[in-house]
Design goal:
Strand content: 25-35%
CATH architecture of the largest domain: 3-Layer(bba) Sandwich
Strand order of the largest sheet: 14-15-18-13-21-19-20
Number of domains: 3
Bound molecules: flavin-adenine dinucleotide
Number of strands: 23
Number of helices: 11
């Protein structure tokens, strides 16, 4: 039996697995035993068709080699295992922390993980209780806990980054239960129900292989020696020594950021975005005119370039708008969907840029908006308005109920965001309505959404280390180096690779 990499297998848009097999056999003039899809792309220059790259198992095969057919030699993206004597602490167990810890474990380091939130099973109960009753646990919620912020999400795996370690990440997801399709589908998504099982399985696997997990144990302080080098961390339970510290704390860890600032770690402000979710009947989105082969009919990506940029973000077809706050007396919306994406309602964030010159302290700026929304609502009900009413400055009953589980309170967003931002948002809506006719008339706004990006960057040098705190490796969204599951996971791997190379 031999494994071949076969490129350029062309099949019609509508096809079955049997058609792919037939396509390979036709290309090779040879029967195959099995195949595994590695990549799929669309050729839409004329009559559209799919082009596959496949790993094929067949008897014999050397005579089949050609420019499109080679012996399959898998590139081993896993690090070489050696018993290494350094202890590394990973604080924060979102995508960046998970993949940094996983890779460091594979390389043979002693790895300790500290996560302020709970394991997924317990976290699920806290989130469910909040969605049903409005009782918030500030350490265990949509932002905090095993898996990080991406756990109660659509788990879209899209990223514009091209990196060979994307395959490494997807392989680990598939090994722990994800559908093979995530390897090759455009706009692949896992769904909140599936990602929770996958992350739990990864954690169990790592624990079994020797990673020491400390859930419900928040890093309260970094410990430095006289030369400002990291020597450990302090939690409520005690001190833990380490040689190196990788922190992936997410965009909501403002208290930890305050502590890092007090410790003198160099941190700068960066631009952010704010906005709200819009919801439309999914049938309305599906029915618009698109080239549904190139662009998934159920999703849209909108962008308006005015004095400030306005864009759609993190669209959740067939999803739900959810309460994503981690602080009491605040309102923060976000979106999630189950693998089936069958709620019947499409939601997406619509965000407007806020430049760092517009605030002194980005966290304070965002918290003011979150508290202001709560003060208006007097509860965890989100603010809502028909888009058409926002355009006219009116307030009428919603044209349909929001999916936001705690209910909403009607409010004119013209009184919520600055006049200038509202003017730009209205220009953007007019532009979106030209692109998707009916976007204004058929949609509602639910908000505010304030946690789509982190207002700070922890400065790193060319070795990804804090510029003034040796041994400290900031990573992921909360450090200003990613946004989204894949980019943050890749950043965690980048940090792990650096530690393996220079500290192994
Ligand atoms: C509701 C929702 C839906 C989303 N949907 C998608 C999506 O579909 N696709 C996508 O690509 N992205 C999505 N995102 C964004 C994505 O989840 C984040 O970009 C990503 O999780 C960031 O990864 P991270 O590792 O940097 O940090 P996070 O995932 O935020 O994880 C940080 C972790 O650190 C922990 N922590 C914080 N402080 C401490 C401390 N002092 N000590 C110990 N632990 C600490 C937190 O509890 C948290 O678990 C979504 C986000 C949300 C909130």
């Amino acid at each position: 039996m031999i494994k071949l990499l076969v490129n350029q297998v062309k099949v019609p848009i509508e096809h079955s697995e049997a058609d792919i097999k037939a396509g390979v056999e036709k290309k090779l003039h040879h029967k195959i035993k099995s195949f595994e899809i590695r990549k799929r792309s669309l050729d839409a220059r004329k009559e559209p068709f799919y082009v596959y790259s496949l790993i094929v198992e067949t008897e014999e095969g050397k005579h089949l080699l050609s420019k499109d057919v080679s012996i399959y030699v898998p590139e081993d993206l896993h690090p070489k295992y050696e018993k290494r004597d350094k202890t590394i602490i990973v604080a924060g167990y979102g995508p960046s922390g998970i993949f940094a810890a996983y890779r460091l474990m594979e390389a043979g380091f002693k790895v300790l993980v500290f996560e302020k939130g709970k394991r997924i099973k317990d976290r699920e109960a806290d989130v469910k209780r909040f969605f049903e009753t409005g009782i918030l646990n500030t350490s265990s919620n949509v932002q905090f806990g095993e898996g990080g912020a991406g756990t109660f999400s659509d788990a879209k795996l899209t990223t514009r980054i091209k990196d060979k370690y994307i395959d490494y990440i997807l392989d680990i997801f598939v090994k722990h239960g994800a559908d093979q399709k995530i390897r090759y589908e455009n706009h692949a998504h896992i769904g909140t129900d599936e990602i929770r099982k996958i992350i739990s399985s990864i954690t169990d696997d790592m624990a079994q292989k020797g990673v020491e997990f400390h859930f419900e144990e928040e890093m309260k302080e970094i410990l430095l020696d006289e030369g400002r080098k990291i020597v450990g961390i302090r939690t409520e339970k005690g001190k833990y020594l380490c040689d190196l510290l990788a922190i992936g704390l997410g965009h909501s860890a403002y208290e930890s950021v305050k502590m890092l600032k007090e410790k003198g770690v160099h941190i700068e402000n960066k631009d952010i975005s704010i906005g709200f979710r819009v919801e439309h009947p999914q049938s309305f989105i599906d029915a618009r005119q698109t080239n549904s082969i190139i662009e998934a009919a159920n999703e849209y990506f909108l962008r308006y370039k005015g004095e400030k940029g306005v864009y759609s973000f993190c669209m959740c077809p067939g999803g739900f708008v959810i309460p994503a706050m981690s602080d009491e007396d605040t309102i923060v919306t976000n979106g999630m969907s189950y693998a089936a994406r069958d709620s019947g309602v499409a939601n997406s964030a619509i965000l407007i840029q806020v430049f760092k010159e517009e605030f002194e302290d980005g966290y304070a700026f965002l918290h003011d908006l979150e508290h202001k929304a709560f003060a208006i609502s007097s509860s965890y009900k989100a603010l809502s308005q028909n888009i058409a009413d926002f355009m006219k400055g009116e307030s009428n009953p919603l044209i349909f109920d929001s999916t936001y589980p705690l209910g909403t309170v009607l409010h004119d967003f013209n009184d919520f965001f600055s006049e200038k931002d509202c003017d730009i948002l209205k220009q953007a809506f007019l532009d979106f309505d030209r692109k998707i006719p009916g976007f204004i008339e058929k949609g509602i706004m639910v908000g505010p959404e304030t946690r789509s990006s982190c207002p700070i960057r922890i400065l790193r040098n060319e070795h990804f280390q804090s510029i003034n705190t040796p041994g400290l490796y900031p990573m992921g969204e909360g450090a200003g180096y990613g946004g989204g599951i894949m980019s943050c996971a890749l950043d965690g791997i980048r940090i792990a690779n650096e530690l393996i190379l220079n500290h192994g």
